[in-house]
From TrEMBL:
It comes from the Bacteria. This is Integrase catalytic domain-containing protein. It comes from Polaribacter pacificus. InterPro entries: Integrase_cat-core (IPR001584). One of its GO terms (biological process) is DNA integration. Residues 2-47 form the Integrase catalytic domain.
Length: 55
């Protein structure tokens, strides 16, 4: 499982991002997932964009 997560993070961060610790990696992944990465199931919006539109 850990190798799969590392691979996903490497793909999402284009292999140029390094993390000081696990907490730093989790914050970066959360930011990427919720604020940067577009989701097909959300009509190519981020979760934060959809949340702001529904509020």
């Amino acid at each position: 499982m850990a190798e799969r997560v590392k691979g996903i993070l490497k793909d999402e961060f284009y292999l140029d991002q390094t993390f000081d610790n696990v907490a730093h990696a989790k914050r970066a992944a959360k930011n990427l997932y919720n604020e940067i990465r577009l989701h097909i199931s959300l009509d190519y919006n981020t979760p934060n964009m959809v949340y702001k539109l529904s509020a």
